[in-house]
Design brief:
Blueprint (H helix, E strand, L loop, with lengths): L1 H35 L5 H23 L9 H16 L5 H4 L14 H23 L4 H19 L5 H4 L15 H18 L2 H11 L1 H6 L4 H27 L9 H14 L4 H18 L9 E2 L2 E2 L7 H16 L12 H31 L1
Antiparallel strand pairs: 1-2
Helix pairs in contact: 2-8, 2-11, 2-12, 2-13, 3-5, 3-6, 3-11, 5-11, 9-11, 12-13
Length: about 375
């Protein structure tokens, strides 16, 4: 028994070391690519935006997939995080140029980048806590409509001229610090996703899953439904706020109209394609979604595309979105559980898959040898 426990412990350590090594390899690969490829390469755009969308998709999955709360307020919380980051990091000397219609704005100081990222998450979490008090008593579609309405109300408020001394009204916020290296969003998103995974695997995460599976049974087991729902909603919004700050850095300018409900639908689509209840599925589908929409299908917008002297018909600007929508429909129809379902990508899972394949090959070999022996006997 002790030997078995020791072997399992050793295997866990080996899996952890292999996972850490794989992550280190990804970071080294991205670093090498930055040194080799031109800075304007579309690959870096996909990697940066994919990392940001991966974080917000995982945060949404924490709420929709692991707690069973159908919320559509993610774009609103991203907007709060983006504005918080921008407002508190614009250098004082540049504020008169940014807030030119509001006498330089009300805030006349700036804080460091990482402090602003943390503050972006905290402000988004604060708003989530406030809106969660009345809204989390709702269920299913009613909760989705309420959170979507909150996001739209916040978008309108941030463009209100009366708040212009803080939000700059309907004008752009710019001249705040941005990242240049692809490693920065990878690093921040990686840490945040790791924290979410630790939460999911904790006692709180098991309580979230119990609420998702059966609220009545969870309450009978002593789980406080209201407090745990509020906790999941607040934590999800915290990480959505950080992803909003990263998106602001990626875009270099922000304006409230960028955070429309369509953004929330994109994130929900990523979660569904990756698998509701799978963290690694959300990460993989984020990269695929951004790569398809921003890079791989771009040629479909070219109305002068020639293939071997033949002019391809139907192609025009925006056609890639039609094809992308058809692809997504096919995935949803024929791959209903998403890419990963509720499974996770892990070293242990790869090892089990290899063992299953080896077992199947051994079984086939034994069957073929048995058939050959029986044929020889005849």
């Amino acid at each position: 028994m002790k030997n078995l426990q020791n072997n399992l412990q050793k295997q866990k350590v080996q899996d952890w070391l292999l996972s850490a090594g794989l992550l280190a390899f990804v970071f080294v690969l991205v670093f090498v690519l930055e040194q080799v490829l031109p800075k304007t390469s579309m690959l870096f755009t996909v990697l940066k935006k994919g990392a940001i969308y991966a974080l917000v998709a995982v945060s949404m999955n924490l709420l929709n997939g692991f707690t069973g709360l159908f919320s559509l307020g993610q774009a609103g919380f991203m907007m709060i995080g983006a504005y918080t980051y921008a407002v508190f990091t614009i250098p004082v000397a540049l504020r008169p140029a940014v807030y030119q219609y509001f006498d330089g704005g009300a805030i006349q100081f700036a804080i460091p980048v990482f402090a602003a990222l943390l503050l972006a998450g905290l402000v988004a979490a604060f708003f989530a806590f406030l809106i969660g008090l009345p809204v989390l008593h709702l269920k299913s579609d009613y909760l989705a409509i309420a959170t979507l309405g909150f996001a739209e109300i916040m978008r309108a408020l941030f463009q209100w001229d009366k708040l212009g001394v803080i939000t700059n009204g309907s004008n752009l916020l710019r001249k705040y610090p941005v990242f240049r290296s692809t490693l920065f969003p990878f690093f921040v998103s990686g840490i945040c996703i790791a924290l979410i995974v630790l939460l999911i695997n904790s006692t709180y995460g098991r309580a979230f899953k119990a609420i998702r599976d059966d609220e009545v049974a969870a309450e009978a087991m002593g789980i406080n439904l209201a407090s745990h729902k509020r906790l999941a909603f607040t934590i999800s919004s915290f990480f959505a706020g950080i992803s909003g700050a990263l998106l602001a850095m990626f875009q270099t300018t922000i304006q409230a109209n960028q955070f429309k409900s369509a953004m929330t639908y994109e994130i929900l689509l990523i979660v569904v394609i990756g698998g509701i209840g799978s963290v690694s599925g959300s990460v993989i589908s984020s990269m695929l979604f951004v790569a398809c929409s921003e890079w791989w299908l771009r040629f479909l917008d070219n109305n002068n595309l020639m293939v071997g002297g033949f002019h391809v018909p139907l192609l025009k600007p925006g056609f890639r979105k039609v094809v992308f929508a058809i692809v997504i429909m096919l995935i949803v129809i024929f791959w209903q559980r998403g890419i990963m379902g509720e499974s996770e990508f892990s070293i242990a899972g790869i090892r089990r898959a290899i063992k299953r394949l080896a077992g199947k090959k051994a079984a086939r070999a034994s069957e073929s040898s048995a058939a050959a022996k029986s044929g020889g006997a005849k």
